[in-house]
Phosphotyrosine protein phosphatase I domain-containing protein
Amino acid sequence: MDAGLPRVLFVCSHNAGRAPVVPGRRYLDWPVADPDGAPSAAVRAIRDEIDAHISDLFATLPGT
């Protein structure tokens, strides 16, 4: 499995720990609502929440 993720530093998931485990990687669990079937306003809110998670992650990376 590691050969498929040689440059991955983080694995971000909303799968509640069901992502494959690759030793030496940092795992982030981002609990977000499932947008399937949700109204447009709810989907936009979910999108914005994911964007905030990504922005927060980038802010923690060295050199950013």
